[in-house]
Amino acid sequence: MTEETTTSTSAAGHYLSRQVIVASENGLHARPAGRLAQEAQSFEASISIVSDEQVVDAKSILDVLTLAAGPGHILELRATGTDAEEALNRLSELFKNKFEEA
Amino acid sequence: MADAIVSGISVATGIAIGKAYFVNRNHMARLPRQTVASDLVPEEIKHLHKAFATVEAELTAIRAQVPEELKSHASLIDTHLMMLKDPKLSGAAEGYIKSLGLNAAWALEKAVSDQERAFGAIKDPYIRERMQDIRVVADKVQTKLMGVDNDITAIEGRAIIMAHDLTPADTVELQVNKIMAFATVRGGKTSHTGIMARSLAIPALVGVDKLEDAVHDGDLVIIDGLSGKIIVNPSETELADYTERAAAFESYTRKIKRQCNLPAETFDGSRVQVLSNIELVEEVAAVIDNGGEGVGLYRTEYAYLNRTDLPTEDELTDKYIDLAAIMAPRKVVFRTLDLGSDKFISTFGELNETNPAMGLRAIRFCLKNPQLFKVQLRAILRASAYGNVSMMFPMISGVKEVRQAKAWLAQAKAELRREGLDYDPNMPIGTMIELPAAVMIAEYLAHEVDFFSIGTNDLIQYSIGVDRTNHHVSYLYQPLHPATLRAIKMVVDAAHQAGIEVSLCGEVASDPFCVPILLGMGIDSLSMTPQAIPGIKRIIRQTNMHDCRKLLKDVLQCRTVSRINNLVMDNIFKHFPEEVSFFSSLLENDELPS
C-alpha cells in the first residue's frame, strides 16, 4: 500500500489524505474500531475515513463500525488541522500492524 | 390472590422467594416524552452530560475490578466506554435537546434510533450485533437520567434480578452471592442467563413477556422455576404454600443428590447410561458432582461464538484434550459444529437466510466449508488419544452426507498419521437423528455408523413443523405426541436391529415423566443437563422394565397427546408421587391453545 500523503483541497479546505488497507483478519470489528477511535480522539485534527462514497468520523467508534469494512478493504484517511500529518502517521501505523498493541 | 402471575420459559429449576430488583429495564416503554422550555435547555444538556459522566465513572470502576480470568469480558466494557465517549451518541443527543427541545432521555433515544437505522443496513451480523451494546450503554445513561438509580452493582441484601436482557457484560458486574434468581424478557433456552443460572444453581426464567409491566422494583415475587411462573405480591396463602414447596423441593433435591452416584439400574437389573449435555469444559465438575457417567453431547460451537476469528486447531485440541482427559475413562461424545439457524459466527457473516432452520446449518455448513470442518475433525481426533472419545454429526439427512463426512475424517486421519500425531483409530462415529428423513432411513444409516443419538428438540420441531419459540404455535410442541414417540421407537428398533447403541440427548431425556417410556423402548443411554441427572437416576432406580414396557405398549396405542398425558400421569401418580408435586407442569401442554 502506498505510503504517500496527498494534499487535496475540497469545499472544507485543505486536507491531507492517505490510503490504508484493512489487514486484520476480521475487518474493522469492535476492538480495532474502538482502538482506532480512541487513537483518533487523541489528536486535535479532525479526521475522517472514506470508504466508497461513505465518509465517517474516525473519532466515533459507532461511525467506524458502520463502515463494516472487511479484510482487504481499502480506505482513505483524511485529516485537517495542526497535527494532521502526525495523526495520519499514527493511524496508518495501526492499520499496518493490524491494531496489535505495540 | 397475587397482584399478577406471569409465565416464561424455565431455564433453571427451583423456587425462590424474594424482592424484585430491576436492571436493564427497557425504559422506552415508560419514558416520558417531554419537551423542555428553551431557557431550560442548558440545564438539560448539563443533566445529559452528568449522566454520561456518572456511567463512565461507574464502568471505569467496574473495569478496574474485573478479575484476571474474565479479562476477555473486560474488552466489552472497553467497547462500552468508547461508545459512551462517542460524539455520535452524546453529541447527537445534545443536538436534539438544542434543536428539538427534547428532554435528555428522549434526545438520547433519538440518537440511538439513528444509530439503529445505520446499523440495520449492515449485512455483517457481528457488527449488527454491536447495536445491542449501544442499547446497553444508552440504557445505563437513561436509567441515570430518569433518576431510577438501579445499578447492578448496588444491590443491597439478596434479590431476584429482573432484566429486559442480560448480556455477558452485565454478568461480569453481578455480585453473584446476592442473587436468588433471574427473570428476563428476552432470551431463550440456551441464552447466557440460563447457563449462568444453572451454574449458580438458582432458578431462572427467560422469555417473560409481561415482566416489565407486571413487576415493579421491591415487589415481593415468587419465581417458580418448576412451572415457569412468577407470582407477583402473593397472598398469604400463596406465600405459605410456596414456602412449603420451596422447602420440600430443596429437601428432595438434597436427597436425590446424595444418591446420585448409585448406578442407574432398574429394580429388575436393567442398566441405562446416564450422560450429560455440556458446552463448556468448566461444566465437567457439575457432571461428576451430579453422578453423570460421561458426556453424551459436547456442544462444540460455543468455542466459535462471541469472537471475531476462528479458533485454531491447537486451541481446539487443548480444550478437547482437557475435556477428554478429565472425564476419562468416562466417555465424551463430541458433536461436530452445529452452527447456523440461530447460532452464527461473524467470519461467515454473509450467510443471510430467510428460513435458517431449514438452511445451511450444522453438517451442511461443515461440508460446504471443509477447511473449517477439517480443523475440528483433527482436533477431536488428537483428543481421542487422551480419553474415551466419540464423535457425531448433527443434522444428517441422508446416507451420502454421512459418507462425505466420514471421507473428510479419513483424510484427517491420514494427515495425522503422516505427521506422526496420535489418535484413536477406532474412535466411534455416530449420527444425530434430528430430521424426519433420518428417522425414516434409520435402518440404512445404522449400517454407516457405530451409534445413534436422537436429538428430540429438533426432531419434534421438524416433525410437527413447529417453532417452539413462536408464541402462536408453541402449544403444539409436544414431546409426547404420538408421532414423536413412534419416531423415537423406530430409531431405537432400527439401531438395535443393526446391533448399534442408541442414545437420546434432547430435553425429553431429562423429563422424569418421559423417561419410563424411553426405558420401555430399550434406549441405551440418556444425556441431559448435569442438574437433571440425580432426579432421572432416581426415576430409573424406582422402576422396572416390565412396567416400562407395559406403559410403552399402552402409550403407543393412544391416538392423542391428551390420552398419552393421562396415561403417563396415572403411571407417575402410582410410582413416583413425590415427583408429581414438583414436575406436573411439564405435562400441562394440551392439544388446543388455551
Automatic annotation (TrEMBL), chain A:
Primary localization: cytoplasm
Keyword Secreted included in the entry's annotation: no
Annotated signal peptide: none
Keywords from the UniProt entry: Cytoplasm, Phosphotransferase system
Alphabetized Gene3D superfamilies for the sequence: HPr-like
Transmembrane segments: none
Top-rank taxon: Bacteria
Cellular localisation: Cytoplasm
Record PROSITE patterns: PTS_HPR_DOM, PTS_HPR_SER
One Pfam family cited in the UniProt record for this chain: PTS-HPr
Domain HPr: 15-102
CDD domains assigned: PTS-HPr_like
Family assignment from sequence similarity: Belongs to the HPr family.
Protein name, per record: Phosphocarrier protein HPr
Species name: Pseudodesulfovibrio sediminis
The encoding gene: ptsH
From TrEMBL, chain B:
UniProt-annotated location(s): Cytoplasm
InterPro entries assigned to the protein according to its UniProt record, in alphabetical order: PEP-util_enz_mobile_dom, PEP-utilizing_PTS_enzyme, PEP_util_C, PEP_util_CS, Phosphohistidine_dom_sf, PTS_EI, PTS_EI-like, PTS_EIN
Protein keywords: Cytoplasm, Kinase, Magnesium, Metal-binding, Phosphotransferase system, Sugar transport, Transferase, Transport
Spans traversing the lipid bilayer: none
Domain of life from the UniProt record: Bacteria
EC number(s) from the headed UniProt entry: 2.7.3.9
Keyword field contains Isomerase: no
PEP-utilising enzyme C-terminal domain: residues covered: 256-544
Keyword ATP-binding assigned: no
Cofactor(s) listed in the protein's UniProt record: Mg(2+)
SUPFAM superfamilies, per the entry: Enzyme I of the PEP:sugar phosphotransferase system HPr-binding (sub)domain, Phosphoenolpyruvate/pyruvate domain, Phosphohistidine domain
Residue ranges of every copy of the PEP-utilising enzyme mobile domain listed in the record: 157-228
Reactions the enzyme catalyzes: L-histidyl-[protein] + phosphoenolpyruvate = N(pros)-phospho-L-histidyl-[protein] + pyruvate
UniProt domain Phosphotransferase system enzyme I N-terminal: residue ranges: 7-130
Similarity annotation: Belongs to the PEP-utilizing enzyme family.
Function: General (non sugar-specific) component of the phosphoenolpyruvate-dependent sugar phosphotransferase system (sugar PTS). This major carbohydrate active-transport system catalyzes the phosphorylation of incoming sugar substrates concomitantly with their translocation across the cell membrane. Enzyme I transfers the phosphoryl group from phosphoenolpyruvate (PEP) to the phosphoryl carrier protein (HPr).
PANTHER family, sorted: PHOSPHOENOLPYRUVATE-PROTEIN PHOSPHOTRANSFERASE
Protein name as it appears in the record: Phosphoenolpyruvate-protein phosphotransferase
Organism, as annotated: Pseudodesulfovibrio sediminis
